[in-house]
Every structure is written in structure tokens, then in C-alpha cells.
UniProtKB/TrEMBL annotation:
Glycosyltransferase recorded as keyword: yes
Lineage, highest ranks first: Eukaryota, Metazoa, Ecdysozoa, Arthropoda, Hexapoda
Keywords from the named record: Glycosyltransferase, Transferase
Gene Ontology MF annotations: procollagen galactosyltransferase activity
This protein's name: Glycosyl transferase family 25 domain-containing protein
Organism domain of life: Eukaryota
UniProt entry tagged with the keyword Transferase: yes
Amino acid sequence: RRPERRQRMEQCFAELGVRAITVDAVDGRELTDAMLEEMSITLMDGYTDPYHKRPMKRGEIGCFLSHYSIWKKVVQSGDEVVMVLEDDVRFEAFFRQKVEALLDELKSLALDWDLVYLGRKRLQEQDEVFVPGSKMLVRPNYSYWTLGYLLSQSGARKLLAADPLNSLLPVDEYIPILYDRHTEEKWKANFPVRNLQAFSAEPLLIYPARYLHEEGYVSDTEDSPQVSLPRDDL
């Protein structure tokens, strides 16, 4: 949808010396009711956005399906570790070196890990505890955003095994549910197995390229239409 973002990211990858595979996102605006039904997608009963008090938007469904398709590709490929990045991020200085140090620390500490946030929006003020022996990793509380994260093979399998398309909500609500730090008990009840081993880089290594209300800020997800079908019709 936004070729200028892809071009900017390709330039960033070239400068960082990162070999990247571009995956076309699912455009939520193009999702019809028939397509949702064909994919057997069922919206989570009772879900409303906790801040805007609205149902899911089609852009949020597209965003979830984009990440879901990547999780499937990871499982199919057998890759042990991948880095997932959205196309609207800003990299911290020495990003590649810091990611390499993070991976070295994960290995040296022999951590059983599934997902590591590289960027996120913290939603709680409680202190987050550093992993014993670590200078770069904390256990995240309830957080938003899927700007970028490291994902292991086991993490991809867990994200798929919970069958999220059968009780769909936005991806940045789903992930904290699976690592059992979400605050909404009714939503958590839809996913009884919540054993995703999640960590976060601290300090963070990526941030949004632009924030809400900044000049040039565009969100195709937020600007997309709401899903108005009754849950039983999906």
C-alpha cells in the first residue's frame, strides 16, 4: 500500500547490513465478509477496543493476518530464530550490534525464550525486572505494538497453536494474553494455554517512525472501517 515505506526500509537494511525478506502485508481494506467467512475467522465475543470502545477494524484484522502468515512461514521454514519488523519503524543507533549482543546474551544465559520485543508501548507503570545476569533483557508487563520482535521456532508454534483465528482480537492484545500479562480476564479465558516465554530489550532498540498527531503520521489500520457483521455471521 505504501511503497515509500518499503523503499525507506530497504535503504535502512542496506545501511545496517541486514539481509531481509519482504513479506506483503494483508490489506484489511480489501477483506470482504465472504473472505473472512472463507478463512473461518470468528471475532472474539465481547471484544471492544479498551480505549475507543469500538469493535475491531478491518485494518486490525489485516495486521493480525500479516503477522499470522509470518508465524506460519517460520514454522514451515524450520528457522530457529527470525526478526520480524513492521515497515514504519525507526532504528536506534548501532541497532545491528545491539541485536547481536542481545542474541549472544540469550544464548549465554541459556534462556528458554519464545519472543523478544525490540520495540513496544509500555502500558503499565510497574517496574519490570531484569532477567538475572542480564544487562539487556526484562520480563515485559502488558504492552502494545508489534513494531519488531525476535521470534523463535517454539514461539511461532505457540502463537499458532492457540488457534487465534477462532477468537480474533488485535495482535498487540493477543501476544500479551499468551505471555499471561494481560489485564482482561474475560479475554484471557479464550486462551487457556498462556505459556509464551516473552522478554523485551531494555532499553528498546526500535521506535515508531512517527507518533500519533505528528506531522506525516498515517495509520492505515486506524483509518480502516470497523467490522460490523454480527460475530455469528463470520
